[in-house]
Structure formats: C-alpha cells, structure tokens
Amino acid sequence: MPDSDPATRDTSVFGDRLPLARRYAEHLATSGVERGLVGPREAGRVWERHVLNCAVVAELVPDGARIVDVGSGAGLPGIPLALARPDAHIVLVEPLARRVEWLCEVIADLGVAVDVERGRAEEDVVRRRWEGADVVTSRAVAPLARLAGWCLPLLRPGGTMLAIKGAAAADEAERDTAAVRRLGGGVPRIERCGSGIIDPPSTVVVVERKADPPVRTTRRRGRA
Predict the structure, then answer these.
(1) What does 142-166 look like in DSSP terms, one character per residue?
(2) Which of 69, 127, 141, 189 has the lowest tally of Cβ within 10 angstroms?
C-alpha cells in the first residue's frame, strides 16, 4: 500500500522539485482540461492517476539518461520524469500544434530543461535528430507491435523502450512478442513501478533494443 503520509511519499519521488510537480498538476487540471489535453473527469485525480503514475517509472531509468517521450500529449510521462529525475535529458515528441504550444508554455513556467519536438517518432527528421536515446517512453499511445516500430529505431543498441500500459499489458506483450523481435527488440517483460507509493503500481512493458531490424529486399525476376 502507498505510504500513509502523502507528503513523505511525494517528497520521496520528487525531492526538492515537489512544488514544481504540484504546479504541473495544476496546469493539467486547469488549462490542460480547458484546452482539451486532459479529460474533464480527470481534473480531480491528476496527481495520483497521471503525475505519480508516470513519475515512479523513474525507477527504470539509468543515471544521466537521454530520454525521448513519444506521443507526449500533455507531457506524460516526460514531464513527471523530468521533475523526478533532473539528471536526465528529455525531449517530448508530439505532432499536434496545440499540444506543442501548451507544452512549451508549461515548461517555460516550470523553468525545467526539457526539449519539445513537433513531429512523429516515425518521421525521418525526428529519427535523425533524436536517435541514439538510452530510453524511449510512451503512455497509452499505440499497440505494442506498432509502438516498437516507432520507438526501437530511436534507441541505441542496449537502450530500452518503456511503455506504460494498463491491465492487459501482459496479454499484449505475449501477443506481440514475435513482431517486436522481428523489429530488433528483445522479449517484452512486465515491470511494476511505485510499489509502496501508488496503488496499484504502474505497469510498464520493457523492451530492450537488441539489433537493427532485418532489411527487407525485393527479389527481381530475371528474364525468361
């Protein structure tokens, strides 16, 4: 179960950046709702359900990691990770202009060093600019097989894809294992983050980039 003292619990996650994390939660619950980045029903539960749910994934992030957050939307999980792990370098990749505008406003207000890239993870320009990442994160973006096709090329060999998923994560990982391996990933595994901090803990599908995906070639027919 989570720590009975919320203040102690929250400080254990964010340290001296807890006031910034609280301010980010306020942005989510106010302008995030008003501008359609967060559903109206989520306004009263952004702290537990969104901010802490994402921040605890920092348990899986190595020191000084370069992180690319794919389909960042309202900055989840990228901004909570940046607040929990100031040692990391994080870029938020988001294709929609109105969301990018909101992200830039929030990051400027918080005063944190986070980059924002308008684009899609599968675009060549995004891959060239941000490839070689240690970690690629996502939250409720796409099915695992499709997600691996977008995320694995952004990783260095040995880097990890961290996909925050729901209750069906294990079934999805089993279903898409073959596709993920064809794309150059290892066997997906399930990790639970935030035990003793949030209930239930966050469910994360972890995939390591093993190799480049095989190059597909088209066989040309010879003349008869």
Answers:
(1) S-HHHHHHHHGGGEEEEEEEEEEE-
(2) 189
Judge whether 15 lies within some domain.
yes
Per-residue pLDDT reduced to its tens digit, 137-189: 999 899 999 999 999 999 999 999 999 999 899 999 999 999 999 999 999 99
Task: Please state, in angstroms and rounded to a whole number, the distance separating the CA atoms of residues 41 and 38.
Answer: 8
The C-alpha atoms of residue 85 and residue 78 are separated, in whole angstroms, by 10
Q: Is residue 217 part of a domain?
A: no
Q: pTM for this structure?
A: 0.91
Domain that holds residue 72: 6-208
Amino acid at 132: G
CATH number at 132 reads 3.40.50.150
Indicate the number of domains in the chain. 1
Secondary structure E strands in the chain: 66-70, 89-94, 114-118, 133-139, 155-165, 189-193, 202-208
User: HSE (CB half, 13 Å, CA atoms) of 99?
Assistant: 18
Say if CB 186 and CB 207 are below 8 A apart: yes
Is residue 139 domain-resident?
yes
